[in-house]
Amino acid sequence: MTRPSNRLASRTMAFVLAGGRGSRLRELTDRRVKPAVYFGGKTRIIDFALSNALNSGIRKMAVATQYKAHSLIRHCQRGWNFFRAERNEFLDILPASQRGGDENWYRGTADAVAQNIDIIDSYGVDYVLILAGDHIYKMDYELMIQQHVETGADVTVGCLTVPRAEASAFGVMAVDGDDRITSFLEKPADPPGTPDDPEVALASMGIYVFDWTFLRDLLIRDAADDSSSHDFGNDLIPEIVAKGTAQAHRFTDSCVKHDPAAPAYWRDVGTVDAFWKANIDLTGFTPDLDLWDTDWPIWTYSESVPPAKFIHNEAKRRGTATSSLVSGGCIISGTEISESLLFTQVHTNSYSQLHQAVVLPYVNVARHARLSKVVIDRGVHIPEGLVVGEDPEEDAKWFRVSDTGVTLITKAMIDRRAAAL
């Protein structure tokens, strides 16, 4: 699929849904919404959807927020404040603010858009791209918008190709030979295969393209329907499939890869296990997600910090990091680090060891600590001599231990442990 000379992205607005807590991340979302959770050493999860939109040529964006939004709003203000209104480009933050004139906050994903119809009208766009702000992937939305226009569909739905055995966790699309959606099934026990490969299914990515005039009318009707849950996946998309024209867009057709032979990378880091694994995967020799690609960069807020520093070179007191990502502002003082990812301003001290550790910003690791297969939340002070990852029963007394043995450590957990000992 080739790009048109007059890019459709310039006539499109990206509406990012970023209000969901992400409760399966447990204590990581006690203080921040899921799209604001840190990822990859420097970025936040929402940076991927916003960067994809920017790199695709979209310069009009809005982020709808609701649950504990301060961290997310502050990040967008600091890291995404380079849009210029005089060039007809902007990123607006749209908190849930009872704009409907009653007691309602955002009642569902569709209602989040419906409550801001007047703002979208003011943008003067032809198309609206609805995005989830909580997934990790690289995608050229221009190609999806182009397919939407060429097919004349009422809605185009972004779809992942997944094995049928795994598709029961998703909303699944049944399609005909032209990828027109013939039915939408929410988490079916027996997902339908595709015409070209019965062993795979098409799962919804929560990405939709609409003509704004069509979507506007649909939202107004849905808002007046008391029986609706006001949700795209539950209400609007099934209605369009039944009464209109819905088209599937395969992620493999617009996924941005560093190598044509690389797999199409998409991750929902919605559990502690998935979050830990996706971060640790980046420490591999050639990770499937290329954060070093300057042709499709992931934009974010970058603090002004000095380079990382490694000090001490004695037996058992050597500042080293192997197969690891270490961000700016870190001081690795006599610590052995392996297969780990350290965010900004992490300080570690002598004789400590970190293995397969995901360490969020401003953590301090005291001397003689041994930590393996852990996620450490922002601002935690790891006490001297703490050992985690060697005795699951002992770890579970104080911390959150997942089914696969990943230990989540937060400040509140450290404080409770200190008070009990």
Automatic annotation (TrEMBL):
Pathway involvement of the protein, from the record: Glycan biosynthesis; glycogen biosynthesis
CDD domains assigned to the protein according to its UniProt record, in alphabetical order: ADP_Glucose_PP (cd02508), LbH_G1P_AT_C (cd04651)
Reactions this protein catalyses = alpha-D-glucose 1-phosphate + ATP + H(+) = ADP-alpha-D-glucose + diphosphate
Record's keyword annotation contains Nucleotidyltransferase? yes
Q: What is its EC number?
A: 2.7.7.27
- Which residues does the annotation list for site: Could play a key role in the communication between the regulatory and the substrate sites? Q66, W105
Q: Which Gene3D superfamilies match?
A: Hexapeptide repeat proteins (2.160.10.10), Spore Coat Polysaccharide Biosynthesis Protein SpsA, Chain A (3.90.550.10)
Which molecular function term from Gene Ontology is one that the record holds?
Answer: ATP binding
Glucose-1-phosphate adenylyltransferase/Bifunctional protein GlmU-like C-terminal hexapeptide domain location is 306-409
Do you know which InterPro entries this protein is assigned to?
Answer: ADP-Glc_PPase, ADP_Glu_pyroP_CS, GlgC_bac, GlmU/GlgC-like_hexapep, NTP_transferase_dom, Nucleotide-diphossugar_trans, Trimer_LpxA-like_sf
Residues where alpha-D-glucose 1-phosphate binds: Y106, G171, E186, K187, S204
Q: Locate the Nucleotidyl transferase domain: which residues?
A: 14-282
* Assigned keywords, A-Z: ATP-binding, Carbohydrate metabolism, Glycogen biosynthesis, Glycogen metabolism, Nucleotide-binding, Nucleotidyltransferase, Transferase
**Which biological process terms from the Gene Ontology are attached to this UniProt entry?**
glycogen biosynthetic process
The organism's place on the tree of life at top rank = Bacteria
Top enzyme class, one word, equals transferase
- So what family is this one in? Belongs to the bacterial/plant glucose-1-phosphate adenylyltransferase family.
Q: What does this protein do?
A: Involved in the biosynthesis of ADP-glucose, a building block required for the elongation reactions to produce glycogen. Catalyzes the reaction between ATP and alpha-D-glucose 1-phosphate (G1P) to produce pyrophosphate and ADP-Glc.
* Subunit composition and interactions: Homotetramer.
The name of this protein is Glucose-1-phosphate adenylyltransferase
Species, as recorded: Thalassococcus profundi
**Gene name per UniProt:** glgC
